[in-house]
């Protein structure tokens, strides 16, 4: 059974930080692209950041560049999303995702985590 388990969401004040974790298990993910999507109420699910397991390639949405950092720990099969300078517009459910070829839209994703809520108060 393939599992992506997120943790680290919560409530934070504007300007604060949170770190999300995604632990992958059940198969070998070394060839997969890993990423974080988010979905706010009434909005489409959007890609926030993506990384390959070697860490040699990363992608960030313009809205989070300079504030969020994605990283991968191969030994722990875990992907992280460090979120700094959070603002209320970052409020959403954040989903860990794995894609065998690419991650750009939800259609590319092979596996999803259950999601973790991030709420930023003003």
What is this entry, summarized?
By secondary structure, the chain is mainly β. The chain has strands at residues 3-7, 10-13, 18-25, 33-39, 46-52, 58-60, 68-73, 78-83, 92-99, 111-112, 116-121.
Tally of contiguous helical segments: 0
What's the SSE pattern?
Answer: EEEEEEEEEEE
Largest sheet: 7 strands, mixed
Q: What share of the residues lie within helices? A: under 10%
Specify the structural class: mainly beta
The coarse silhouette is: globular
Q: In whole angstroms, how far apart are the ends? A: 40 Å
Mean pLDDT: 94
The tally of strands reads: 11
Low-confidence stretches: none
Report the portion of residues in β strands.
Answer: over 45%
Radius of gyration of CA atoms, rounded to a whole number? 13 Å
